[in-house]
Amino acid sequence: MINHKEIEQGSLEWFEIKWGQIGGTLSKGLFIDSDTLFIDLLSQHIEEFEPSNSFENESMQRGNDLEPFALEYISSFTGIEFKKTGWLQSSHKLLGISPDGLTECEKFATEIKCLSRKEHTKLLVEKELPKDKLCQIIHYFTVNEKLEKLYFIAYRPESIKPFILEFTKDSKIDLGWKNEVEVKQFGVKGNEIKPKIEKHPDIKTISQWSKIAIVEANKLELKIKETINQLNF
Questions:
Q1: Which residue range is the domain that position 113 belongs to?
Q2: What is the β-pairing status of strands 178-186 and 192-201?
Q3: Alpha helices of the chain — where are they, by DSSP H?
Q4: Which of 77, 105, 114, 199 shows a CA-CA span of 20 to 30 A to 67?
């Protein structure tokens, strides 16, 4: 893994190094049976990066404004000093991430979200993250093999309190996958009959999900290479 500390997030160099990569936002595509991620990456691999005027809506601007305060809060809460860094490049060349906060030893990280009033309140009440945000959590551990603990913080100064969760490689995550399980059934005379198929939640640890992500990334890399060769033929 390479830590590009010198790159500023949001800069032209940052957009350029992310080109053709699977970052935190795109990582959910590794767990979905769809060609959406493949087409997106393929388009970036067959066309050169071109700078464009980035669009920043009101919500994004608010997040950028509040992020330093959130970083200060989580550092005080944990007693761990988190710093901004530009881009972590995995040993797998398709995978990378821009951490919201990372320690010097690279063993601890934080993911910051500055959500709307309703989204923040929903987290406080339900105490669980939406699946797209869980994919980003997994991606931190997939990219950074040194990572021991990740702190997720939803920070909203107007609210009664922030929402904080801790994750390790052993944390169990439900991404909505299902396993088919055969359940024995017996007839009225006690004879075993055709088993019933039930779908049970396929809950895995972050470490297990990371291994799946790497397998899927390897498949994507091969598929991209093969498709480019076919297009060039």
A1: 2-232
A2: antiparallel
A3: 12-18, 36-46, 58-78, 117-126, 131-143, 206-232
A4: 105
